[in-house]
């Protein structure tokens, strides 16, 4: 029952943890309070809201609070903190003073322009910000997602020897040099950038997923030899004309080559060399016509010269179309949203949901408190019943004590004591007298035992003397018997002599 009471009080602390703070703090796991959800618009309120859970909190969720600033000191007292969710806020400044024990940070949907990844972080998510520069305080990042930002180059990740997953999709990157990527990479997403060139010859033998779709690549050259074990390769929606690498990708399981500007001959050679599953092109080809391999391509003896001419023609048509749009307005029917488009209202929608969460948390907490109150009432009733039982036992014990006190008083009088005294003093005097009587009796017993021992010793001596007399008696009897035998023999001889004498006479 005591354990249930402690758990009930602990649950009460987890549910109502804001007796002196404006921040709304709720434990996602009611019994241990390791995963906290904090709702507040002022980061200054976080330390007071966190005070009761600084030893237990391993994960803190601060998403959707519309905070404009945050410092690591705000959660610095949480010594066990491993994960920090700051997504869907309005943070503009780099994080400061994040403890080395924090391993996971989510900064999705903020307004950061620069950030330094803290030293102990292994998973760092910062999608949909305004990042143009990212640096690293440590070298142990395993997963990095910086998609939907404004990076014009790949951050310096050459020292991140444990990085497995890298997502830089929907940025403004123009070049990729495989020499500056860590060999540990398994997943690389560079889709929806402005990449027109790849280079480098470092072998990334662990890379299995590579997405370069929706860029402006025009050629797949020998730099792709850097990914010999790639299993999934996405090159759709580029301007690729030719594949010049002679590499056979033996591990390739899936490839997407659609919506490019393929030269039919180059495409045919690559497909025959790499017999893998591929998605068919749209019959209404962006360039050329649908070939026998299911992809759109153009048959040409001078692939790049033809495309330069066509490019200039397209530029001229684009200028004409732009002029027409200015006169007539844009044609919204042909508008297609980009996968990189963000929703600027998303942060406020999440913040509004967080506000609704407050009401939900209050309702949940009220229900939880009612349950705890009912439990406490049940425990109180049990305690009252237990109290009544204990009082009854106490009454029984008091009766027994009174009987024992009367009995001791009687013994006190029987032993001849006259002076009034308390029961414990009476019992002490009784035991003292009894000890003295017992001591005298014991001395008498000892004396009697001594006399008995003396008698036993005398009896032993008499028994020894009797044994000696018996021995002497036996010897005398033996001598008498021997002498009797001699007398009989003599009498026999006398008788024989007498008979001889009688015969002679």
Descriptive terms for the model:
disordered N terminus; LRR_dom_sf; 22 strands; three-stranded mixed β-sheet; alpha/beta; signal; leucine-rich repeat; Leucine-rich repeat, LRR (right-handed beta-alpha superhelix); repeat; about 500 residues; 13-stranded mixed β-sheet; Leu-rich_rpt
**Structural class computed from helices and strand pairing:** alpha/beta
**Span from first to last CA?**
134 Å
Q: Determine the CATH superfamily of the domain at 151-305.
A: Ribonuclease Inhibitor
CATH class of the domain at 151-305: Alpha Beta
Q: Largest sheet, order of strands side by side?
A: 1-2-3-4-5-7-9-10-12-14-16-18-20
Mean pLDDT score: 84
Count of distinct strands: 22
* Overall outline: elongated
Outline the biggest β-sheet.
13 strands, mixed
Helix-strand blueprint:
Layout: H1 2-15, E1 24-27, E2 35-39, H2 46-50, E3 59-61, E4 83-85, E5 104-106, E6 114-117, E7 123-125, E8 133-136, E9 143-145, E10 165-167, E11 175-177, E12 187-189, E13 197-199, E14 209-211, E15 219-220, E16 232-234, E17 242-243, E18 254-256, E19 262-263, H3 264-273, E20 277-278, E21 289-290, E22 296-298, H4 303-328, H5 346-414, H6 423-504
Parallel strand pairs: 2-3, 3-4, 4-5, 5-7, 6-8, 7-9, 9-10, 10-12, 11-13, 12-14, 14-16, 15-17, 16-18, 18-20, 19-22
Antiparallel strand pairs: 1-2, 21-22
Keywords: Coiled coil, Leucine-rich repeat, Repeat, Signal
InterPro entries: Leu-rich_rpt (IPR001611), LRR_dom_sf (IPR032675)
Pfam family, one: LRR_8
Polypeptide structure, described:
The protein is of the alpha/beta class. Helix content is 41%, strand content 13%. It has 6 helices and 22 strands. The chain has helices spanning 2-15, 46-50, 264-273, 303-328, 346-414, 423-504; strands spanning 24-27, 35-39, 59-61, 83-85, 104-106, 114-117, 123-125, 133-136, 143-145, 165-167, 175-177, 187-189, 197-199, 209-211, 219-220, 232-234, 242-243, 254-256, 262-263, 277-278, 289-290, 296-298. It has a 13-stranded mixed beta sheet with strand order 1-2-3-4-5-7-9-10-12-14-16-18-20. It has a 3-stranded mixed beta sheet with strand order 19-22-21. Helix 1 (2-15) packs antiparallel against helix 5 (346-414) and helix 5 crosses helix 6 (423-504). The longest helix has 82 residues, at 423-504.
């Amino acid at each position: 029952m005591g354990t249930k009471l402690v758990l009930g009080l602990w649950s009460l602390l987890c549910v109502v943890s804001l007796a002196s703070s404006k921040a709304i703090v709720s434990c996602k796991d009611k019994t241990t309070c390791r995963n906290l959800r904090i709702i507040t618009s002022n980061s200054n309120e976080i330390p007071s809201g966190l005070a009761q859970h600084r030893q237990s909190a391993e994960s803190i969720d601060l998403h959707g609070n519309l905070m404009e600033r945050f410092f690591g000191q705000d959660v610095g007292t949480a010594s066990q903190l491993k994960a920090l969710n700051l997504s869907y806020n309005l943070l503009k400044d780099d994080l400061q003073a994040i403890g080395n024990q924090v391993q996971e940070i989510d900064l999705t949907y903020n307004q950061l322009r620069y950030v330094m990844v803290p030293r102990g972080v292994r998973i760092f998510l910062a999608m949909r910000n305004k990042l143009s520069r990212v640096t690293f305080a440590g070298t142990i990042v395993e997963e990095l997602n910086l998609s939907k930002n404004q990076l014009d180059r790949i951050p310096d990740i050459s020292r991140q020897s444990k990085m497995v997953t890298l997502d830089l999709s929907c940025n403004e990157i123009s070049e990729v040099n495989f020499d500056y990527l860590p060999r540990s990479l398994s997943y690389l997403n560079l889709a929806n950038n402005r990449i027109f060139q790849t280079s480098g010859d470092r072998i990334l033998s662990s890379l299995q997923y590579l997405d370069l779709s929706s860029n402006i690549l025009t050629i797949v050259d020998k730099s792709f030899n850097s990914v010999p074990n790639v299993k999934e390769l996405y090159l759709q929606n580029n301007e690729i004309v030719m594949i010049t690498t002679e590499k056979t990708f033996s591990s390739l399981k899936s490839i997407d080559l659609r919506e490019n500007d393929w030269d039919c001959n180059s495409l045919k050679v690559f497909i025959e060399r790499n017999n893998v599953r591929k998605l068919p092109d749209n019959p209404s080809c962006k360039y050329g016509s649908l070939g026998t391999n299911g992809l759109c391509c153009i048959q040409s003896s001078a692939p790049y010269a033809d495309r330069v001419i066509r490019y200039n023609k397209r530029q001229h048509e684009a200028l004409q179309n732009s002029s027409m749009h200015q006169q007539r307005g844009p044609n919204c029917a042909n508008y297609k949203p980009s996968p990189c488009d963000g929703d600027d209202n998303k942060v406020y929608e999440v913040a509004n949901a967080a506000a609704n969460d407050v009401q939900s948390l209050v309702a949940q907490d009220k229900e939880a408190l009612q349950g705890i109150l009912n439990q406490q009432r049940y425990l109180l009733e049990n305690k009252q019943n237990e109290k009544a039982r204990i009082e009854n036992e106490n009454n029984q014990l008091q009766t027994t004590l009174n009987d024992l006190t009367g009995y001791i008083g009687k013994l006190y009088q029987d032993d001849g004591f006259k002076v009034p005294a308390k029961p414990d003093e009476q019992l002490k005097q009784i035991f003292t007298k009894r000890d003295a009587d017992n001591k005298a009796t014991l001395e008498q017993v000892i004396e009697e035992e001594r006399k008995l021992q003396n008698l036993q010793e005398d009896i032993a001596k008499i028994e020894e003397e009797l044994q000696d007399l018996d021995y002497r008696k036996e010897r005398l009897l033996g001598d008498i018997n021997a002498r009797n035998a001699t007398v009989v023999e003599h009498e026999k001889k006398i008788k024989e002599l007498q008979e001889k004498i009688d015969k002679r006479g």
